Amino acid sequence: MTPLWKTDSPAVAGMPLEAGRRHDVVIVGAGLTGLATALELVRAGMDVAIVERGGIGELASGSNTGKISLLQGTTLSSLRRHHPASLVQAYVEANRDGFEWVTSAADELGVATTERTAYTHAAGADGVAAVTEEYRAAREAGLDVRLADADELAAGPVRMTSAVALDRQRAIDPMSLLTALAGAFVAAGGRLHLHTAVSRVRVLPRARVDTDAGPLFADRVVLATGTPILDRGLSFAKVSGMRSACVSFDLEGAVPGGMYLSADSPTRSVRTVSAADGPAGRPQLIVGGAGHPVGRADSERAMLDELVAWARETFPIGAETHRWSAQDYTSHNLVPFIGAMPRSLGRVRFATGYAKWGLTNAPAAALRIASELRGEKSREKPTWMTVIGTRLTVPADLARGAVENAKVGAVAARGWADALTRSTPVPRPAEGAGTVARSHGLPVGVSTVGGETRAVSAVCPHLGGVLEWNDLECTWDCPLHASRFAPDGARLEGPASTGLRRLG
Predict the structure, then answer these.
(1) Contact 178, 32 (CB under 8 A)
(2) Which of 14, 311, 354, 418 has the least CB density, counted as fewest CB within 10 Å?
């Protein structure tokens, strides 16, 4: 499950953490949000440190499809359906600034990109209506989109009866960008601490980040961790965690060079990869899909197998080269949360809810957070920062949140009920399999990976959800708020701040 982008990605060396050291800003997370924020701040003369549990681009930032686009499926029409035009326009302007930041940074740092046309397309009647609605919302918000003509539709790589198009978008190798940003940050005087896990963030008596290498102190802390690992403001209950998968193949025929995303269900994403915007070597095709709420799929492997079968029926492809998955979060009101964390005395900033469009939303979030930490006045900031920061919650937002949290409650109850029906000991799971059973009245997860059978607590340490086995990635996933754990119980991502208790 290694992304195509990480095949030949150069290793980035961090530096030892000096326990007890104080910085102006400590940033948790070395994805695009963390690196872009850090570079903005260190170039403004601040003393900045990044702390990352894994390596550069460990999670979503290093595992996306490399599309830098302001046409984002049906995002704008979904927003416009329940929000005023001013909010949709602010979202577009935020992403436009994010687009300009990331492409300018790529140009400055010598990271190659290719110019592409982005398409949101449809094959069936439902998709056609969605395409038309997206076109209207995008035009209203100031994007220079167009409806594809008959020749363009016929030339597409998949059946397209309708499509909205936006020219002059970009494709990139995201790991090349992240690696370059990390190098620029260190060269500017920043301190980069990789493979260092954060266990806790404190606000009083002063901001403090506890790690497995000792504490760091700061005037301000930025949580750039996908979803915040600090439970203040109930952020975990205001977003939904979604996983999706990608597969890359050797390309053995001609496929148009656009970036394609379907408006129909199931959602499919398609783009080619060339030596100019991906790892050097033979041409590739990336197909994405298999989206689902974390921990709520019957079989993640079956979903990916279906995606692979569709790709082989549709495109001139050869051998499969890589497969990978990533996780992102969508806010219930469909707009990213960016800014000060509630009840943190203004000492903690965070960003979440990019809804799979992090290559523009992440740098936009970095721009806003950096502006706040530099102390810039409201009149000095772009209008979108104020509009998004003061958006109102409308009834549709509340309804979506209520529905999602009702699902969470139902999943929690079902998980406990199911877990308590099977007692341990259970038969040794087959290689790559896992099962949940009951031991002393509590759910226990038993799995076999790499020939080793392990038992861990199957109760998420965040809010007590019963975990589900992910048969594609061999992980324990929480269906409540999307925390994930390795077979041995180590925390991988999500709002949980600790791993699982090991039982054997």
Answers:
(1) yes
(2) 418
